[in-house]
Amino acid sequence: MSDRYELFLTCPKGLEGLLAEEATALGLEETREHTSAIRGSADMETAYRLCLWSRLANRVLLVLKRFPMKDAEDLYNGVLHVDWHDHLEPDGSLAVEFSGHGSGIDNTHFGALKVKDAIVDKLRMPDGSRPSVDKLNPDLRVHLRLDRGEAILSLDLSGHSLHQRGYRLQQGAAPLKENLAAAILIRAGWPRIAAEGGALADPMCGVGTFLVEAAMIAADIAPNLKRERWGFSAWLGHVPALWRKLHDEALERAAAGLAKPPLWIRGYEADPRLIQPGRNNVERAGLSEWIKIYQGEVATFEPRPDQNQKGLVICNPPYGERLGDEASLLYLYQNLGERLRQACLNWEAAVFTGAPDLGKRMGIRSHKQYAFWNGALPCKLLLIKVLPDQFVTGERRTAEQRQVEREHVEPEDTSPLVTPGKYEKYNKNGNPIKPAPVVVEQPRLSEGGQMFANRLQKNLKLLGKWVRREGIDCYRVYDADMPEYSLAIDLYQDWVHVQEYAAPKSIDPEKASARLFDALAAIPQALNVDKSRVIIKRRERQSGTRQYERQSAQGQFVEVNEGGVKLLVNLTDYLDTGLFLDHRAMRMRIQREAQGKRFLNLFSYTATASVHAAKGGARSTTSVDLSRTYLDWARRNLSLNGFSDKNRLEQGDVMAWLDACREEYDLIFIDPPTFSNSKRMEGVFDVQRDQVQLLDLAMARLAPGGVLYFSNNFRKFVLDENLAQRYAVEEITAQTIDPDFARNSKIHKAWKITAR
Predict the structure, then answer these.
(1) In what residue span(s) does the THUMP domain sit (predicted)?
(2) CA atoms within 13 A on the CB side of 155
């Protein structure tokens, strides 16, 4: 066998240049880049060193042979003519990986089978013994790559992929592979920062991959030092003495690195379920003295290393894979930008993102961007110098304030890490000058965002007197007033509930996304609410009962006031909140007319109308709904107001319930869904088709002199003209639209129906 070998090193797409630099530094010669791989030449010692020390490679492949092939027979013969007795015992085990196609090989499984057959036939003994296949832990892992009619036959020296360092047995939902994390750290300049004694902080650390990879770089620990089984372990060409020498050297370097004073490396994670798995990973890596992980939200992130040293803030925020998620992430990025500006002045930052448009919303410029791939997802690494001249913020301070800051505060003094009470500047009387406080300015709104903010503030001002007069603390402040910003925005005390209407297919998705981000950036500023209290949902055309299905499971209820009653809303778990704001005027009408009456609420949802009827002095209320969840919610609403007695809750299909009912009611309210096909009901309910049957059944239960109110929000609904021949029918839609829905008069339709 030759003293020098051709080596192929594979890597994630986009890391080829970095891997070429790393491999060259480790001794690879004649290095050339390919897609997701590099190649070069090296001796055995360098091949071992690459296995042990490469932080970026997936595999180290040692090329045995290259040969031309035009069909499967060429493939078989080319592999057969290798002297496999130099590489594998006849009773050993092997695994074959095949990549590429062409030359009559269109199926990688078939290609791998031909390679395996050739090796087995070569090593088959007279007594019939032959190598076996072991896909998990073979003695020899063989790789054949077919590239434009040439077969490249290699041994895999690494065994399992080199990104599997062995410390990360527990991981979160979307972890970065270890070699990609190492590449991001290298691109972010961490080796330089670590050599200077800098700190590192990850405000969204997950299970700690960035932290461990960073500490291993800083402590000079070979990334695969703890790996026990390699692809070369049972290879007959393995040189154990040479390997032991390199491994011992790596052990000595790691011991020397860990003996140094540890750098300040900290991770913070909002999800409490990930804290212990992250700490376990750190412990398995042997880096508990270097790395600490704490629970903490991005909005309160503030690194406080010893001796005020600066360093690198690095993070991989979630990307948002479901519809609507990306919008919710805007505030996460804004919080990150705010914390960088406030708590990390003079640090460097690296934000790895699959949503670069969100990266632009942090209110701070990146001075460099690198393209990466996380699996099949294109990503960007944004490198940032956290300095005031990089901030993209509104001009909140006066010229005089800025002049005072320039005269009295050096950049390092504005850092929040300066010890309170210690000032370095003095006035002419010898008294210390206290630095002006660091002003964290909001990111500057785009032109469209500012226009949207102006509209919100205008609406808020117009509704202000009415809201205060009526004692309302939950109302609609915006409803697609400007077609480009297709949102419905409701205030629930100091919470904001935002529903994004899906843009028509004719709208460019990128433009729609940019406008949405502009609007979401404007909402907290225009309405003066904390970003953490803005709930965002996407509203699309719903089928069946989807709008009533659970979207989340946070179980967080907010108590709101309306017309003297208290009601519970849930802003997170369902598409709707438990309170239809557009029916407020109808509920207040019911409250005024309920005195002494028997009230029936059909399709009652959370029974808010029943609470109002009870508040108005109803003799009794009966609420009918098919959902046990909503009836439990209704029970809580009634109990909250002390109305547990004389208020029945009935679970059932409304049509069947009415058909079986023999009681009379003086006041009836019906607000049915447009369409329902619940498994718990017979057939399918369609409000347009079934309106006559529904109203006839309900009117049969109406006491003499009673009133039935019928409403629905189906835009195309037309009341059956035959109903007016049997009953006194009066459309009262205009009287049931409050000022906050005045722009959207088609939000619902309503009728008052009485017996003739």
Answers:
(1) 46-157
(2) 27
